[in-house]
Amino acid sequence: MMDSDNIIDIPSLQWYPGHMRKAERLVRENLKLVDVVIELLDARIPLSSANPVLREIVGDKPRVIVLNKADLADEAAMRVWVKCFAAQGITAVPVDAVKGRGVKELVQAIVQCAKPKTDKLVQHGAKARAARCMILGIPNVGKSSLINRLSGGSKTKVENRPGVTRAKQWIRIGTQLELLDMPGILWPKFEDRQTALHLAYTGAINDNVYDVASVVLLLLDTLRTKYPSDLKERYRLEGELSNGAELLAAIGRKRGCLRAGGRIDEEKAQQIVLTDFRSGRLGRVMLDSPPSISLIEDAR
């Protein structure tokens, strides 16, 4: 397999200090207003899509993890990740926000997670209220889709509350939840090349900021190693699968991506591979390995 450090050119993406401070301050100031933090992750990359500073900011605040795009993730490996989070005392719920699968289970998990806080308020004489939460996650993991699905496409605004500025709005989710909708989402610092690669594969990083050609070759090499059957089936490939470059050429020929003289139109072939992968046409995958491979076999 190719060495990603030698072939890929993804710059170290970091926030400007002022921007980072503003984003952290926004979350910290609003954290006290919610009972539960919903951490939104891409189910295919539970490690790579996790903000490395989120746990520090959230602290001991109860947390529920949403493994979004679960319909695109390897089911057995995803079950292992759910077990791994459970071992840490954290509930993780696989969700397909587009189709709504897992949303009811998510609402139940959030309400249950908030119950100690809401019950305590009632015990102290307060009126029973819905659980309050906020969603945090990196861009392009499906925050808008999840909010729309939770709210049924109808974002019912709740009145401003004491201590909440007019810029902040609560969205009522049925009778059980209220979601604090805030502008701005934290973006991680990409110091690890493998993390950056996984985010590039799934489209979390804009395609304009890295060398797409190199990323597609590495993606094909990864799929060749982990999911060869799906790759062969999608593109009707036969025989031994070779390296990424030869795979891209074979896919280009199969899909008619040809220029004058029979040369492969590599850019067109690259876009076909990226689109197929990101839409799940190359099968359900898991790019971040769970802690124990043996647990995957137990989950099958």
Order of strands across the biggest sheet? 3-2-1-4-7-6-5
- Main sheet, how many strands, which sense, barrel? 7 strands, mixed
Radius of gyration: 21 Å
**Class from secondary-structure proportions:** alpha/beta
- Amino- and carboxy-terminal Cα gap: 27 Å
Can you tell me the residue ranges where pLDDT is under 50 for at least 5 consecutive residues? 1-7, 11-17, 159-167, 293-297
Describe the structure.
Residues 1-7, 11-17, 159-167 and 293-297 have low confidence and may be disordered. A 7-stranded mixed beta sheet has the order 3-2-1-4-7-6-5, with helices on both faces. It starts with a helix and ends with a helix. β2 (63-68), α4 and β3 (91-95) form a beta-alpha-beta unit. The chain is 44% helix and 12% strand. It is elongated, with a radius of gyration of 21 Å. By secondary structure, it is an alpha/beta fold. The chain contains 12 helices and 7 strands. α4 crosses α12 (293-299), α8 packs across α9 (228-235) and α10 (244-254) packs across α11. It has helices at residues 4-7, 17-31, 54-58, 75-87, 103-123, 143-150, 193-202, 212-226, 228-235, 244-254, 266-279, 293-299, and strands spanning 36-42, 63-68, 91-95, 131-136, 156-158, 169-173, 177-181. Required for a late step of 50S ribosomal subunit assembly. Has GTPase activity. Keywords: Cytoplasm, GTP-binding, Nucleotide-binding. This is Ribosome biogenesis GTPase A.
